[in-house]
Amino acid sequence: MPITSVTVDPQNPETWPEGRCNAALLDATTEADIAVQQAHDDMEARTSAAGYLRRVRKRLGLTQRELSQRIDVPLDTIRNWEQGKREPAGPAKALLKILDKSPEIALSLLTTQNHNEIFDE
Q1: CA-to-CA distance for 75 and 96, rounded, in angstroms?
Q2: What is the pTM assigned to this prediction?
Q3: CB of 53 within 8 A of CB of 88?
Q4: Does domain 35-120 have CATH number 1.20.120.450?
Q5: Are 60 and 103 contacting, i.e. CB atoms less than 8 angstroms apart?
């Protein structure tokens, strides 16, 4: 595939490559429209994360309390995640992916016995 270099001056629209957009729609979009769409997108992302967590937890056969104890996260945090009030971030999100893909291994490593072995060394 050939590589094409393009020089673009952000201050000069004439140098911008042609794209596929509806200029009239862009011009008609207000800051309020953008804020509404952003709020909608944020809510949709939280809802998706909430559904994902709920699905993983139910697949593991755990209650919210049991999951909170297993992964050492406050019960209120689990509830907030599942209700879409908050979204897991960073390490919590990674742990949920591991629980989803390899639940047996993840849960066995999260047991109290293994936890003590890891931190007592």
Answers
A1: 15
A2: 0.58
A3: yes
A4: no
A5: yes
Q: What is the pLDDT of residues 28-47, one digit of tens each?
A: 999 999 999 988 887 777 77
- How far apart are the C-alpha atoms of 91 and 94, rounded to whole Å? 5
First vs last Cα of the chain: how many Å apart?
54
- Residue ranges covered by each domain of the chain: 35-120
Q: For residue 2, give both structure tokens.
A: 């050939």
Q: What is the full DSSP assignment across the chain? A: ---------TT-GGGSPP----HHHHHH--HHHHHHHHHHHHHHHHHHHHHHHHHHHHHHT--HHHHHHHHT--HHHHHHHHTTSS---HHHHHHHHHHHH-HHHHHHHTSHHHHHHHHH-
